[in-house]
């Protein structure tokens, strides 16, 4: 028996799942006490879930590998999942390290070491796929280190800067 | 007619050109940069030739070397990349290789956008109001003075380009220089030229473009008009033909002006004449693109004319063989660009491997793409990965069809703008056809979708979470289940 607290676009739901193995292709999940029969494509990773049928309602889905959002064809839902049995809050996604989201070339560095930045402030501009992309600070703080300079090419997940 | 054609491009347009060649029984020769080796256009072509280095899609020398070595009789440069490089086109002409696209003379005329506007205005055609010259990014003082003369709001545009890259609207002088910096940076990245120019903006206007075909015997026809007003992140994402919300008299006036402009520049081949229609209904010439356009599919659906085939025929010297009256415009088409980018994360491009790629089917639905399940969205190139066009006898039918085609389209492994496109085609301004360029400011993605059953989403999220937790801590470590582990413990 698993008990999860799930927040979707600000609304809270308690979901209980007894058994993850499917009967007739369906797993039963109790959402706020109401049982729902759920079938989904390959459950190996969140990204591999491409569709689901809940009772009689069919969904085409795209799910973030970190489970921060679920997209149906109607749009994107922001989600947050907490395991009530584990009682450990998930780390908030405001990592102090800024890493390369896609490989590219650093066009401009917009901050200096020691400078105070706000959450969401552009830190540098990365050129990738013929576009200039602003890389922003995930949280407020002081720039503790800068690992790149303008003109440098960077690989995926390279460390760009750290906010202390 | 040509026997063998070099396709001097990549991605979906290269696939499109290869298809046109094969449909006409012409051999298609593809080229590829080292990192683009398994690309679809390479796999579908009759011959595939490697370019020596990364970046050579843009190298006139490397491209011409292949053309001469293989002995093609024509080159089709598509759009973007090398298509508007006057040096390349001139070198081909001098080497006796036909270029399917504008000649170097036309290219050199229209490449200078400010001169083009002046020439059109001198012919008595109303145009948009540009700055008196282009500016290098460091001419801040001069730009501010010019901006004050033109008046705000105004548009900053890349002087060299034509894909909307570097195009930004500015509302006051405080933000002008910051926007110019961004624009010229984008222009440098995409076109290799950081010069920008300014143009008076027209609020709540429509962006109407008229594709034309001209042969080398004096016949020029238009192929109806398209509306390209729906933009996101300064790029056109949806187009439709015919344009909704303009009446027949306006439509015909715009067509006539387009033909007049095409004659002025001696267009021989495919071109698109672009206009801004102000809120009073007056159309103003803004740019001419003397090449095939990304959105040509929308026009092909309403005219049933294969634009690339016509380009090949015209370049081979054949007459069009039909008059304006014989060009029949029927029904409505809606066109969508599918980009590998995440609109929910500042349109961040999303390269990577495509794990699922299911295209929509059914009547009157067409997808042009270089992608397939298992293929890569390479990191070096533009994010345009697929183009969808649907056709219907009426706009209402077409709206239903684009809605369901976007629902059917499923791409996993990379982020795409499909979710945003679905929101746009359901937006009331789009459905009513009353949209303008101002509609691009509507924030469709900030509010979460309201009509999903959130309990269902919660149930799916729970399963995704639990399945991940289970696979993250399997009962038996994978190393112990492999043959290597068992083998190593076997006593010899």
Give your account of this protein's structure.
By secondary structure, chain A is mostly beta strands. Chain A folds into two domains: 2-83, Glycoprotein, Type 4 Pilin; 97-163, Beta Barrel (OB fold (Dihydrolipoamide Acetyltransferase, E2P)), CATH 2.40.50. Chain A has no helices and 17 strands. Chain A has strands at residues 2-8, 11-17, 27-31, 34-40, 51-54, 57-60, 62-63, 69-72, 75-83, 97-99, 104-109, 116-117, 122-128, 131-136, 141-146, 153-154, 159-163. In chain A, the strands form three sheets. A nine-stranded antiparallel beta sheet of chain A has the order 6-5-4-3-2-1-9-8-7, with no helix packed on it. In chain A, strands 10-17-15-12 form a four-stranded antiparallel beta sheet, with no helix packed on it. In chain A, strands 14-13-11-16 form a four-stranded antiparallel beta sheet, with no helix packed on it. Chain A is elongated. Chain A starts with a strand and ends with a strand. Chain B folds into four domains: 4-100, Rossmann fold (3-Layer(aba) Sandwich); 129-200, 2-Layer Sandwich (Dna Ligase, domain 1), CATH 3.30.1490.20; 206-441, D-amino Acid Aminotransferase, Chain A, domain 1, CATH 3.30.470.20; 453-492. Chain B is built from 17 helices and 23 strands. Chain B has helices at residues 11-23, 40-44, 60-70, 86-95, 104-111, 113-122, 140-150, 173-191, 248-264, 296-303, 307-315, 395-408, 418-426, 428-432, 454-472, 478-481, 483-489, and strands at 4-7, 27-32, 47-50, 74-76, 98-99, 154-158, 168-170, 196-200, 206-214, 220-222, 226-232, 235-241, 269-277, 283-289, 332-339, 341-342, 348-349, 352-353, 356-358, 365-369, 376-377, 384-392, 410-412. In chain B, the strands form six sheets. In chain B, strands 9, 10, 11, 12, 13, 14, 15, 20 and 22 form a nine-stranded antiparallel beta sheet that branches. The longest helix of chain B has 19 residues, at 173-191. Chain B is globular, with a radius of gyration of 24 Å. At the A-B interface, strand 1, strand 2, strand 3, strand 4 and strand 6 of A face helix 8, strand 17, helix 13 and helix 15 of B.
């Amino acid at each position: 028996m698993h008990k999860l607290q799930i927040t979707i676009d600000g609304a809270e739901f308690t979901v209980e799942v007894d058994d993850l193995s499917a009967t007739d292709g369906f797993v039963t999940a109790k959402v706020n006490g109401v049982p729902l029969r759920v079938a989904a494509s390959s459950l190996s990773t969140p990204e591999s879930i491409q569709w689901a049928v809940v009772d009689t309602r069919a969904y085409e889905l795209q799910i973030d590998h970190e489970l921060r959002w679920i997209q149906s064809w109607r749009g994107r839902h922001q989600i947050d999942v907490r395991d009530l049995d584990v009682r450990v809050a998930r780390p908030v996604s405001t990592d102090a390290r800024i890493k390369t989201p896609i490989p590219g070339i650093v066009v401009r560095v917009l901050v200096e070491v020691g400078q105070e930045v706000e959450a969401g402030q552009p830190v540098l501009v990365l050129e990738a796929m013929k576009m200039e992309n602003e890389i922003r600070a995930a949280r407020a703080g002081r720039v503790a280190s800068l690992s790149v300079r303008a003109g440098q090419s960077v690989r995926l997940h390279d460390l760009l800067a750290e906010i202390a | 007619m040509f026997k063998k054609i070099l396709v001097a491009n990549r991605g979906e347009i290269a696939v499109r050109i290869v298809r046109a060649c094969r449909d006409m029984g012409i051999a298609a020769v593809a080229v590829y940069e080292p990192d683009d080796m398994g690309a679809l256009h390479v796999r579908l072509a009759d011959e595939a030739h490697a370019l020596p280095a990364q970046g050579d899609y843009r190298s006139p020398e490397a491209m011409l070397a292949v053309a001469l070595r293989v002995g093609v009789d024509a080159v089709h440069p598509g759009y973007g990349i090398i298509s508007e490089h006057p040096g390349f086109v001139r070198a081909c002409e001098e080497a006796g290789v036909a270029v399917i696209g504008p000649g170097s003379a036309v290219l050199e005329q229209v490449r200078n956008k400010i001169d083009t506007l002046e020439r059109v205005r001198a012919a008595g055609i109303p145009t948009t109001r540009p700055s008196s010259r282009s500016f290098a990014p460091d001419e801040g003082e001069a730009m501010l003075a010019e901006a004050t003369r033109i008046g705000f709001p105004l548009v900053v545009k890349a002087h060299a380009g034509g894909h909307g890259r570097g195009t930004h609207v500015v509302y006051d002088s405080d933000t002008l220089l910051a926007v110019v910096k961004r624009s010229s940076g984008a222009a440098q990245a995409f076109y290799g030229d950081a010069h920008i120019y300014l143009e008076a903006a027209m609020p709540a206007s429509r962006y109407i473009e008229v594709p034309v075909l001209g042969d080398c015997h004096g016949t020029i026809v238009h192929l109806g008009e398209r509306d390209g007003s729906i933009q996101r992140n300064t790029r056109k994402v949806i187009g439709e033909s015919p344009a909704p919300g303009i009446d027949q008299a306006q439509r015909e006036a715009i067509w006539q002006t387009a033909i007049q402009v095409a004659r002025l520049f001696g267009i021989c081949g495919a071109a698109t004449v672009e206009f801004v229609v102000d809120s009073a209904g007056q159309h103003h010439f803004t740019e001419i693109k003397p090449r095939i356009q990304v959105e040509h599919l929308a026009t092909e659906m309403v005219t049933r004319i294969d634009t690339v085939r016509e380009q090949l025929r015209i370049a081979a010297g054949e007459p069009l063989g039909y008059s304006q009256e014989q060009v029949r415009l029927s029904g409505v088409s809606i066109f969508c660009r599918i980009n590998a980018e995440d609109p929910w994360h500042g349109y961040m491009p999303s390269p990577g491997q495509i794990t699922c790629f299911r295209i929509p089917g059914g009547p009157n639905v067409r997808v042009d793409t270089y992608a397939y399940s298992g293929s890569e969205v390479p990191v070096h190139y533009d994010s345009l990965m697929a183009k969808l066009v649907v056709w219907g006898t009426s706009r209402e039918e077409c709206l239903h069809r684009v809605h369901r085609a976007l629902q059917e389209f499923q791409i996993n492994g990379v982020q795409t703008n499909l979710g945003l496109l679905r929101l746009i085609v359901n937006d009331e301004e789009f459905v009513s056809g009353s949209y303008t360029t101002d509609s691009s400011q509507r924030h469709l993605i900030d509010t979460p979708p309201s009509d999903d059953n959130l309990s269902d989403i919660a149930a799916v999220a729970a399963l995704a979470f639990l399945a991940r937790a289970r696979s993250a801590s399997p009962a038996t470590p994978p190393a112990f289940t492999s043959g290597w582990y068992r083998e190593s413990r076997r006593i010899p």
